[in-house]
Amino acid sequence: MNNQEIRDLLIKELAIENLSSEAQDEIVAKIGEMVLRSLTASIFERLTPSAREEFSRISTAGNPALIQEFLEENAPGIHQMIEEELKKTLDGFKKQGK
């Protein structure tokens, strides 16, 4: 699932299609931050101590392609983890809205 697919899914699931692009971007960014924090914690738990150190170093460098490559090699099931975290976060928002 790439960034555009994630963005589209969030917009659809949160029913914010009718908002301005700026408002959509703001909402997607905030939710993305929440998902990223939770996902990072989950990934960190699954990595070996040496991989954790490397992940910290790579994350600090801020190169998304390098981070993605590292995760695909060192965090089996990363794509499934992303989907699960998105679903969990969206479910939480839907429950709050009721």
Could you spell the SSE succession in H and E letters? HHHHH
Strand content: under 5%
Helix content: over 70%
Return the average pLDDT rounded to an integer. 87
Low-confidence stretches: none
Radius of gyration: 15 Å
Structural class: mainly alpha
The tally of structural domains comes to 1
What is the number of helical segments per DSSP (H or I, 4+ residues)?
Answer: 5
Strand element count: 0
Gross morphology is elongated
Structure commentary:
- The structure is a single chain.
- This protein has 98 residues and is mainly α.
- The protein has one domain.
- The protein has 5 helices and no strands.
- It has helices at residues 3-13, 21-46, 49-61, 64-74, 78-97.
- α2 crosses α5 (78-97) and α3 (49-61) packs antiparallel against α4.
- The longest helix has 26 residues, at 21-46.
- The protein is elongated.
- The model has no long low-confidence stretch (mean pLDDT 87).
Compile the SSE list and pairings.
Blueprint: H1 3-13, H2 21-46, H3 49-61, H4 64-74, H5 78-97
Structure summary:
The protein is built from five helices and no strands.
State the main characteristics.
mainly alpha, 5 helices
